[in-house]
UniProtKB/TrEMBL annotation:
Top-level taxon of origin: Bacteria
Pfam families (alphabetical): Usp
UspA domain location: 10-155, 169-297
Family: Belongs to the universal stress protein A family.
Organism: Actinomycetospora chibensis
Protein's name in the database: Universal stress protein
Length: 301
């Protein structure tokens, strides 16, 4: 596994939003009976905030005002973290708060905390895209890019998709590379007791080298069940190497058809052709899978 301990604590980014609360509940379905550090990262409010105005008449100097504002903001942050701990405990985890004051770069800070604390997985929620500023594209995107340990990103889900997190299989994107194989092993360790479906991702370059006709066709998916009695199955995804969105859509379609509880992808590998495809797919899947996505990084070079 990447840096971190598979039996170590989960690091949960919690900002008090509905999306963050949903991430806790669904991550607990996928990884029950764990210990979580509920991290609330806060920054002092802007100078024109209501809190500034309310405390301005109590301050002796501008520096004193900054001190008062930071004290109030820190106290409020502890309350937010405490509510996250309560949600984690209600979901079946043991939990403790972790409160940090930061000045921007929450995703970087989450990744830094993960590297220092022997974290097994970072859990973050997203509020969707659609023009509204959410975690995906900011905090969760930065966390995925920087974290040395796996990151579970939980997007807004429909009722059927939420229900799948309880018992649904694990769909693992695999292109034959070392990074993809690492992701498969990591999924086995972190998500035990579930059947695994391997989604074989093949690029046209690979297919043409084997003399396969129609390699440039649109992505298709076909089931090829294993014959070894394993509960897992194999899905083949044929896609354009320069169309990660097409691969992500095919993965999302197959995840829906199989009732998958989570999609697993690797990132930042070493094979120039295969890993470039899978790395791009990882980013596209984060935006379009409509499932929780576990992104497993490869070790640093």
């Amino acid at each position: 596994m990447p840096a971190g301990d598979r039996d170590g604590p989960l690091l949960v980014g919690y900002d008090g939003s509905h999306g963050a609360a949903t991430a806790i509940a669904l991550a607990a379905n996928l990884m029950p009976d764990r210990h979580a550090q509920v991290a609330h990262l806060w920054s002092p409010p802007d100078g024109g905030s209501a809190l500034h105005r309310r405390l301005a008449h109590r301050a002796w100097t501008a520096e004193h005002l900054d001190t008062l504002v930071e004290r109030e903001a820190a106290a409020a942050a502890k309350g937010v973290a405490a509510s996250g701990v309560a949600l984690a405990q209600a979901a079946g985890w043991t939990a403790e708060p972790l409160v940090r004051g930061v000045y921007g770069g929450e995703g970087h800070e989450l990744a830094r905390l993960a590297a220092q604390d022997g974290t097994a997985v970072v859990v973050v929620g997203s509020r969707g895209l659609g023009g509204v500023r959410g975690l995906l594209g900011s905090v969760s995107d930065l966390t995925v890019n920087r974290s040395p340990v796996p990151v579970l990103v939980v997007p807004p889900l429909l009722a059927e998709e939420r229900a799948a997190t309880v018992f649904g299989p694990v769909l693992i994107a695999h292109d034959g590379s070392d990074g993809a194989e690492r992701a498969r092993h990591t999924a086995t360790e972190l998500l035990p007791g579930r059947s695994h479906v391997i989604a074989r991702v093949e690029s046209p370059l690979d297919l043409r080298s084997l003399g396969v006709r129609g390699a440039g066709a649109a992505p298709v998916a076909s089931d090829r069940s294993k014959q070894d009695g394993s509960p897992s199955g194999t899905v083949t995804l044929q896609a354009d190497a320069f169309g990660p969105r097409a691969v992500a859509d095919a993965l999302a379609e197959k995840a829906a058809a199989r009732g998958a509880g989570v999609v697993v992808v690797g990132s930042r590998g070493r094979s120039m052709i295969r890993e470039a495809l899978l790395g791009s797919v990882a980013r596209a899947v984060l935006h379009h899978a409509h499932r929780p996505v576990l992104v497993v990084p490869s070790p640093p070079h």
